[in-house]
Amino acid sequence: MQELLSSLGPVTAVIGAQWGDEGKGKATDMLAEHYDIIGRACGGANAGHTIVIDGQKHVFHLLPSGCFHEGKQVVLGAGMVLHLPTLLEEIHTLKEHGIDILDRLHISPAAHIVFDYHREIDGALEQERTQKEGQGIGTTKRGIGPAYMDKAARTGMRMERMNEDLTGVLTQRRDWAQRVYGVHIDVDQECAHLREAAAVLQGRVADTVALLHFWMQEGKTVIVEGAQATLLDIDHGTYPYVTSSSTTAAGALQGLGVPPRSLTSCIGVAKAYCTRVGSGPFRTEMEEELGNRIREKGGEYGATTGRPRRCGWLHIPDLLRTVQINGFSQWNVTKLDVLDDEAEILVGVDEKDGNAVFETVPGWQTSTVGITHFEDLPEQAKSYITFIEEKTGVPVALIGTGPDREQMIVKA
Ligand code: IMP
């Protein structure tokens, strides 16, 4: 571990290399213990990670994994869109378990507020697309797209306005939302949510850029937890089947207001196979029976929406692209154990006429669950990891071998 930490350096980012749900939370949580500050930079309650506290499972959407470590400063950056009732609920859940995060939570005044009406508009837009085009994007319906639409149109409301009485603005919006989307805004309820949040979050909205800068000058270390993943990026993802924010390493730095040159490393997180929720191209998607088997074995159901995830094989051209975009210094390959039963593993290594060209590598057909030393992996599993390293030119530093925190190989 020490070797890995020194190779990562003081500012590292953990970025998804596929379509999300790669298991970024586990690596962040594990590494966060060794960092002073945990930052989240973009996205909102479309993300979801399951955390076990006192044996009970909880799904968190806004607070980054790793915030459970006492004494760590937690920053929610300017690139984020925050649904305040969800944030309060998460803070409350932690408090119930004896974890007080409020005095170490710092929210950018430039982060945008997601109102309930953004969620309604998200639903209305999906319905319209489905009617017109036969299928929607398959969004999480958390109001993410509409909140970023408001942001880009410069009509959004930011956290700096949380203490204001927004009745007038929201009443104007009510007429507009009704006219354009047929969506009703409950102004009183939106204002009540704001007042409640303002009371709880008093003093927590702060100049996070200045704070991060100050801490970094003091020699404090920062881990940035990316949200969603590179193939869902608004610029570089499989548009239009993408999210509405910048989910890359550059996007994470932008979202936090940290200079690009301060990043000392960037961990790319990819499953040993691949999944996708929602619509969009998926060249290595498995046929139904195999996909079902992997979905059950890997528990591939959305943490936020409960939707079954589409399952497929690893796709090297996509991974190479994400290496180019993010400059990954290391891989965290997750869920290796989910492939334990497979006699053969397919990997998309190239593309021809828009289809994946596969190479087949032998499976190991023995359990790797809970293995924590690379040497203890079966030979074929080692070869699979080496294959990924050779094909992508990036070393694998962490390998997930089960859902628990301890079930991880630190290879570096
Ligand atoms: P939105 O971010 O809710 O607008 O959804 C846009 C697309 O991104 C949909 O295909 C979602 O399923 C996908 N998406 C958004 N957040 C996540 C995530 O955290 N994991 C996986 N997919 C996500």
Keyword list:
412 residues, alpha/beta, Adenylosuccinate Synthetase, Chain A, domain 1, Adenylosuccinate Synthetase, subunit A, domain 2, 2 domains, ten-stranded mixed β-sheet, 12 helices, 34% helix, binds inosinic acid
Radius of gyration: 21 Å
State the domain count: 2
Poorly predicted regions: none
CATH-scheme architecture of the largest domain: 3-Layer(aba) Sandwich
Question: Total number of helical segments?
Answer: 12
Strand content: 15-25%
CATH class of the largest domain: Alpha Beta
Output the helix-strand order.
HEHEEEEHEEHHHHHEHEEHEEHEEEHEE
Specify the biggest β-sheet.
10 strands, mixed
Number of strands: 17
Query: What is the terminal separation in angstroms?
Result: 7 Å
Mean pLDDT: 95
Helix content: 25-40%
| CATH fold-type name of the largest domain | Adenylosuccinate Synthetase, Chain A, domain 1
C-alpha geometry:
globular
CATH superfamily of the largest domain: Adenylosuccinate Synthetase, subunit A, domain 1
Class derived from helix and strand content: alpha/beta
Bound molecules: inosinic acid
Mind explaining what this structure looks like?
The protein is of the alpha/beta class and 412 residues long. 34% of the residues lie in helices and 21% in strands. It has helices at 2-8, 24-32, 84-96, 116-133, 144-152, 167-181, 187-200, 208-217, 249-256, 288-298, 316-326, 379-392; strands at residues 11-16, 37-43, 49-53, 56-60, 73-82, 105-107, 112-113, 222-225, 265-271, 274-276, 310-312, 314-315, 330-334, 344-352, 355-362, 396-400, 408-410. The mean pLDDT is 95. The structure holds inosinic acid (IMP). Inosinic acid is lined by residues 19-21, 46-48, 137-140, 142, 144-145, 228, 232, 241, 243-244, 277-278.
